[in-house]
Amino acid sequence: MTFDYDLFVLGAGSGGLAASKRAASYGAKVAIAEQDLVGGTCVIRGCVPKKLMVYASHFSHFYQDAVGYGWSPVEATFDWSKLVQAVDGEVRRLSRLHISFLEKNNVELFHGQARLVDDHTVAVDDRTFTAEKILIAVGGEATKPQIPGIEHAITSREVFLLPLQPKRLAVVGGGYIGTEFAGVFNGLGTEVFQVVRRGLILRGFDEDLREEVQTGMVKKGVNVLSNTTIEKIEKVPEGVRLVLKGAKDNSLVVDTVLYATGRSPNLEGLGLETAGVETAKGAIVVNEWSQTSQPHIFALGDCTDKVNLTPVAVAEGRAFADTQFGNKPHHISYENIATAVFSQPEACTVGMTEIAANAQYGEDGVKVYRTRFRPMIYALPNVDEKILMKLVVHKETDRVLGAQMVGKDAAEIIQCVAIAVTMGATKKDFDATMALHPTSAEEFVTLP
To answer: What per-residue confidence (pLDDT) applies to 161?
Structure first.
């Protein structure tokens, strides 16, 4: 049978872009469809615009800290609309750049809603195409719970284009998205209330890390409402009122409510049933080769709900292309994936947490090294902000099972530590590494 394309990709996000370009480099005839801006969640409404806003929120602290170094006080003002326009401009620039990369790699781009007609046919709006192989890389979408008044709340999709900066903001959710936005708006001068169902934010992360981040956020002015849920949302003349239930049953009036309580695979309207693609728990089922229940239909990234991170989707996309079109079969490992939370203070982790290591090897089989100190940059302005560093080590082999860090430059530092952890470095290897002084990073190789 003759097909229009060797590969048709649904979704021009991180995974779909990586797979399509790599497949085309092997000589495959490739097409990709996207109904939104090219770039996916990361570029359009995720990692990139969020990190730019994180940077923006830091400057108020820079002005204050500079006084300790001899700079005169600055009475600065902040323009929300200017930031929104600048961030949107950068997002659109990157989207155009990704389109140019597709063009250079001879990948044909179709704008529109794509769906499966059968196991070899894709429809994009009113056009149909056949493909020998199909890749689904449509990502995920923010979700909101069905409670009364939820229509008055926004998600991370809308937050980047708010016409006005809220004076009072409720962020619902203790995951990394909610925690990051709570820090962003607090740094920009908004009064922030973070509503958390449990006692601590960042469930699933290392316990010391969770406590350190939450304590640091509260010090910076974020109002963390622990053990609290929202019963309903009401529109009132002053804004929106949240009816709270938890440790203290009361109400809270804010300008804007941002829900960051979860994301789900974006599978609506894809026609998966028509093509015989199996799903489970709202995600596409795949094997280690990204293969679905249909042997020539594949899926990767957030729509499979494995490890929902941009670098993972990119790696999955390249591995898929190498295997299917490059005669270089391999699949990726999901162990020792470094993760960053661009909270304030920043937090990062790679490998096993202390709790996970204890569960696998027993408390007597694990040794934990930790330190907590004030970085040098905060000495002269006398800022009460600390760094936490932690190594989790297997006693029998001396292998470093995991590393955690909270504080300034955590993400930049943990990336290099992740190399050592992935290679199986031991605590003795860390100890034998000469320190680079004076830095915060040197503490990882001088832990007693």
So the answer is: 93
